[in-house]
Amino acid sequence: MSTSKKFSGVLALAILLAPSMVAQTPMKEVIDVRVTNVEVIATDSKGNHVPGLTREDFELYENGKLQPITNLFEANAGASPGASNDAARKTTLPRRIVIYFDDSTLLPNNRKPIIPALKKLVADTMTSDDQMMIVTFNQSSKTRLPWTNDPAAVQSALDTIGREPGGGRTFQAARSRVESDIRSVVSGDLVSSQSGSSIPAPDFRGILSTVRNYASSVTHNFGVSAAALENLFGSLAGVDGRKIVVIASESFPTRPGGDVFASLENIRNQILSGGGSPGLQRSARTTNVSAEASEFNTNETILMLGRIANAAGVTVYALDPDTGGGSTSGNVEQIGPDQMQTGVSTGTASVDGLQILAHATGGVAWIGTRPAVAFERLRADLENYYSIGYQAKTGGAAERSIEVKPKRANVRVRAQKSIVFRTAESEMSARVTSNLQSAQPNDLGISIQVAGDVVKDGDKRRVPLHVLIPARNLTVLPEGNVYTGGFSVYVCTAGGKAEPSSVNRQSHEIRWPPSTIGQLADRKMTFAIEVILEKGRDQISVGVLDHRSQATGFSKIAM
Fold this sequence. Notes:
Blueprint: E1 5-7, E2 11-16, E3 33-43, E4 58-62, E5 65-67, E6 69-76, H1 85-88, E7 95-102, H2 108-111, H3 114-125, E8 131-137, E9 141-148, H4 151-162, H5 168-195, H6 204-235, E10 242-248, H7 258-275, H8 278-285, H9 289-294, H10 299-311, E11 314-320, H11 353-361, E12 365-367, H12 371-383, E13 384-393, E14 400-406, E15 412-414, E16 418-419, H13 424-434, E17 447-450, E18 455-457, E19 460-470, E20 477-479, E21 482-494, E22 504-512, E23 524-533, E24 539-546, E25 552-558
Parallel strand pairs: 7-8, 7-10, 10-11, 11-12
Antiparallel strand pairs: 1-2, 2-23, 3-13, 3-15, 4-5, 4-14, 6-13, 8-9, 14-16, 17-19, 18-19, 19-23, 20-21, 21-22, 21-24, 24-25
Helix pairs in contact: 3-4, 3-12, 5-6, 5-7, 6-7, 6-10, 7-8, 10-11
């Protein structure tokens, strides 16, 4: 039989199935309980890692209920003194590390020392099993280095990025302009009131409007940055291994514009103390700056990012390298080299947003810390940790809270705060996208091949493909007088400079008579796809999900 279907003008799919191609694999048991591992960093009061702990030294709670710990694994770099990186970590999970430069906020002088510190981190920790990616953000995200296990490629990409200035000056200039506008209005009022000028006194509410516009701009820019991180975290959901995202940024505010609102409140108090004309004092007296500032709050967005990162199994480490008092991050506590724990901050900005995000995922954010010091602590976390396992019931997409508690009084722990058990079907979109840069396991043994001529259609190309699925790898179950099963095919495209497309999906149900089961042998099922590659796209990723066994297969092709 043959059918076709349109997908928003991107893909047309059709099924070409020979009647004799049926599946004969045995029924597979679906297990609804699995061992889930939670990564834990254990330190003493000075931040030094504590080795040698056992299952009896921890308690793990899911949704507030104590869970029996089934297993514990310790990664301890100090266990093999003098060993090479590969030898010391041969039993640990492969690492997937993303370096994310928020170039919309990083100033050149603060950005510059990040590069050598990262290069040292790579030289000290990267092994042949690791994969690294580098992403920059400045109004939009750009993958500067796709997944690679080549340390030389990472070092070269960092050198290239290090020669770039970043875009933080634009961010800083906007803040300076609004503060200058405030000062000029107030200064002009003082001059006119002292000279007896007939020029109308400024209204304090007009000054407030200028600050509000600035805060709205910061909120918008933060929203764009948060959306980029959301996409990045989501794309990592389909990546296997220990996943780390390292963020370098100078503005991740919980209260956008909070520092400027604080400056405005100080000026308001000066005006009310006799520092302005009677008209300006009257308008200042009736204006509630704190209430206006409270309207700009990104806490929920940051917490949402933490939940998305946890659902994808990502731990966030972050650095705000600004050592000048946190001028672009708000009035937050400056953490020195010898005190790198998240603390209570003061002022209108409360806790820095990077701290909230990192804390939610079991990572750390360093504010105003030298990059070399921060990344040395990150290196220690990468090489010294515990993986604690417990039996969790799978199913359902609801978020579950996770809390790990130490039993020893002198031990502190960090771990992710929540977990989501997604079904194989819900993970497929992320895994098909991830397959473009990091090959996914191909348990179903699928393959893809060009099935005809590629046709140019203006700026687009129409590529006919066949997805070949070994029939013996699909699972069918007896249901009445037939065997039933099914599979879904997922497809997306991308290019060197193009973000991955949306993922298109089509499902096919199987109903075959028992008489054809013995005819399968090494036969393959063919799923015909016509992929429309838009300009700038030259990569196609395909994934297949078996409905019965939840087994998956992935393949990709470059055109």
